Amino acid sequence: MLVFSIIASALAPGLALLTYFYLKDRYDQEPLHIVVKIFLLGFLIVFPVMILQRGMILWFGDSPVVNSLIISAGVEELLKWFVLYHLIFNHIEFDEPYDGILYATAISLGFATVENVMYAWYSQAAFGPMMIRALLPVSGHAMFGVIMGYYIGHAKFTDGKSSRGFLLLSLLLPWMWHGLYDLILSMMTHYWLWFIIPLMVLLWYGGMGKISRANNRSPFRIIKRDEEVKT
């Protein structure tokens, strides 16, 4: 019973947030089975990430700055971006800007959910610590996914050099914010909450704006509006 409670409390935040972002797809919802597959791919990339991070720690040492910016944020965001670009960017179902946000948050939340389960399993965490993880690391990964997906959506529906620029931003910006997040946690042992909470508020505020703007650029918006006018 205890094991079930631990696993359930670890799975709940990621699944709840995934449901939230899925329902935010206002005009043309994606096939649920594809979203679930991308979510499960987030599970799988945990293992190559762990292997790469372990090797890099042995190579570079355990410097807080290098660990936060390169080994943690860099490896994690690069692998998520790599999977998204190669499996989703040219997928037929990626047909509106918000889809980038949905698929990026799906893979990010899959990754964060496995991290959460591992943390809960090995630490036997109580309700309080699990709530903190739901509010911080899990939702943090979701916001990094929103940023990544927003610019991937821009790149998908923009031509020429601007497309490549947005594609580069889709990797660099979540990497930067993730690195800042990890840097605060690793270097501020006593006052980290004073910095993390404003950072999370800023990320959520910016993320909600990106979701709204991505939905507003949907080509299905006009179609749906015309259908509503006719009825």
Automatic annotation (TrEMBL):
Protein family: Belongs to the protease PrsW family.
MF terms (GO), sorted A to Z: peptidase activity
Natural source organism: Paenibacillus uliginis N3/975
Protein localization: Cell membrane
Name this protein carries in UniProt: Protease PrsW
One GO CC term, this protein: plasma membrane
Described purpose of this protein according to its UniProt entry: Involved in the degradation of specific anti-sigma factors.
Bilayer-spanning residue ranges: 6-23, 35-57, 69-89, 101-122, 134-153, 165-185, 191-208
Keywords, sorted A to Z: Cell membrane, Hydrolase, Membrane, Protease, Transmembrane, Transmembrane helix
InterPro entries the record matches: Peptidase_PrsW_arch/bac, PrsW
Enzyme class, spelled out: hydrolase
UniProt membrane topology term: Multi-pass membrane protein
Gene Ontology BP annotations: proteolysis
Catalytic activity, EC: 3.4.-.-
